[in-house]
Design a protein that fits this description.
By secondary structure, the chain is mostly helical. 68% of the residues lie in helices and 0% in strands. It contains 3 helices and no strands. Helix 1 runs antiparallel to helix 2. It starts with 18 loop residues before the first helix and ends with a helix.
């Protein structure tokens, strides 16, 4: 049994700076926008849905802001070196 080698580890990237985190936030914003759109349509069709219409509009606007913000931040998101190597092999 030989001497065990210590593997050299990459520097740890904080989760908030990774590509996966930004993609999760983007997916959540898209789901929230879809739900707000559905609520907006159902509130518009009901006769007494003014409050629901306003709430769905505000949530939809916030979700759209989240989509645009996270899509912009996705450009500068960092990928761990190990994952970048795996993607380059293919």
């Amino acid at each position: 049994m030989g001497r065990m080698k210590i593997k050299k580890r990459d520097t740890v990237i904080p989760l908030r700076e990774t590509l996966a985190y930004r993609m999760m936030l983007l997916a959540a914003s898209i789901v929230a926008f879809g739900f707000a759109g559905y609520q907006l349509i159902t509130s518009f069709r009901s006769e007494s849905g003014t409050v629901g219409l306003v709430i769905a509009g505000v949530v939809g606007a916030c979700a759209m802001y989240g989509i645009v913000f996270n899509a912009e931040r996705l450009k500068t998101a960092r990928i761990p070196a190990r994952a970048a190597k795996r993607m380059a092999r293919r």
